[in-house]
Structure formats: C-alpha cells, structure tokens
Specification:
Layout: E1 12-13, H1 21-34, H2 41-52, E2 56-58, E3 61-62, E4 78-89, E5 95-103, H3 108-120, H4 123-131, H5 135-144
Helix pairs in contact: 1-2
Length: 145
C-alpha cells in the first residue's frame, strides 16, 4: 500500500510520444523535480544508472531511478508515471510503454521498487495502466497493489 504523497495526478503524464530513452528519463525526472521530490541533479544520476544497467524490467515497463550516489539529491519519496502508447526503445529491442520514475528516501526506495514490481509483474495490470483513460485509474491500480 502506498501513500498519496508518493502518488499524485500531477506526476502522471498520459499518452506521451517519446523519441528515445534519454527523453523518457528526462521527462519522468522532470515530473519528480516539479513535485519537489528531487533536485535537477537527480536526473543526471538517472542517466548514469541507465548507462550501468538498463532499468527496463520486462512486460513493457522501465523504472528509471538514480544511482546509489544520488541519495543527496532526493528530498522526499515519489513516483512519476508516463504512458507511452507507441513505446520507446530502452535498448536491445526492449520497448517500454510505461515509464515509472522513482525516488526513495532510505529503505523506502526498495519498498517502492518491490510494490511496482508486484503490480507490473502481471501483464494484465500493465495493459490496464497503458490503456487507462484517466490518471485516477492508474493511481487506483497502484494503490490496490
């Protein structure tokens, strides 16, 4: 179960068209910056993380997040979500239709990751989120878990 401060409609972007994974990471990062969860520097750590190992987790989902050294740039835990109906290539032919940016304080990082993994391990859930017509539908699905 996740709290509302972590999830909110202002951090969800519906039906985005994204050219590449760098743009995808920048967009989810900017949503976290605008909501006050992270500083601008966190986005650079998200790029670094992606260079080390892809954040594509399967089922059409990528979860960009910062490296272990990015903790100082996180002000509060938060999640941003972008629906990409046409998908964006995360490398090796992995197409992501759902981009979930995360920032977590301390151990909350792992809790957030595991909650997302549980929801996104069900292909049906991912399909529902990608096809959701409203931000509320998306929030509800994640909060149900």
């Amino acid at each position: 179960m996740m709290t509302n401060s972590i999830f909110s409609a202002d951090k969800i972007m519906m039906k985005a068209t994204i050219a590449n994974k760098k743009e995808a990471i920048n967009l989810v990062g900017q949503l976290l910056v605008k909501a006050g969860h992270v500083t601008e520097d966190y986005i650079n750590k998200m790029y670094e993380r992606e260079e080390l190992i892809t954040t594509y987790i399967g089922n059409g989902v990528a979860i960009p997040h910062g490296t272990n050294e990015s903790k100082e740039f996180i002000k509060s835990s938060g999640i941003s979500i972008i629906q990409v109906p046409n998908g964006v290539d995360f490398g090796s032919g992995n197409i992501a239709y759902l981009i979930i940016g995360i920032a977590g304080i301390g151990d909350e990082h792992l809790e957030i990751l595991s909650n997302i993994a549980i929801v996104c391990s069900e292909e049906e859930n991912v399909k529902t989120i990608i096809e959701a017509a409203t931000k509320e539908e998306i929030i509800e699905l994640f909060e149900r878990g």
